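Exercise 7b. Backbone tokens:
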């Protein structure tokens, strides 16, 4: 009988870093929400795997560090996109239509 070794938590850090790499291409809050959901799904899978033994705690610190880094980066990207949207809206409000005698 062969026993399958549990996956190491550190191996799943690669999936988290993949989410982080795709974050820079997120141009909308909806896209960031999707990445956040994906990140949370990975985390949930690790927690369940640690509980049921399919994931070992080897490299858990690495996983945690990667998770926190990407989570924080998503938050920063979210704030950046919100500021950009507010600036774009403010610029739209500053547009003034001037009619000249020729255009009237």
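Sequence design result:
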């Amino acid at each position: 009988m062969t026993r399958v070794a549990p996956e190491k938590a550190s191996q799943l850090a690669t999936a988290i870093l993949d989410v982080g790499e795709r974050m820079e291409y997120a141009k909308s809050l909806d896209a960031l929400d999707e990445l956040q959901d994906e990140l949370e799904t990975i985390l949930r899978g690790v927690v369940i795997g640690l509980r049921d033994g399919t994931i070992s705690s080897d490299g858990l610190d690495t996983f945690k560090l990667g998770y926190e880094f990407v989570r924080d980066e998503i938050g920063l990207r979210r704030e950046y996109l919100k500021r950009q949207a507010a600036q774009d809206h403010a610029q739209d409000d500053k547009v003034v239509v001037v009619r000249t005698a020729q255009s009237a």
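Instructor comment: The longest helix spans residues 60-93. The mean pLDDT is 86.
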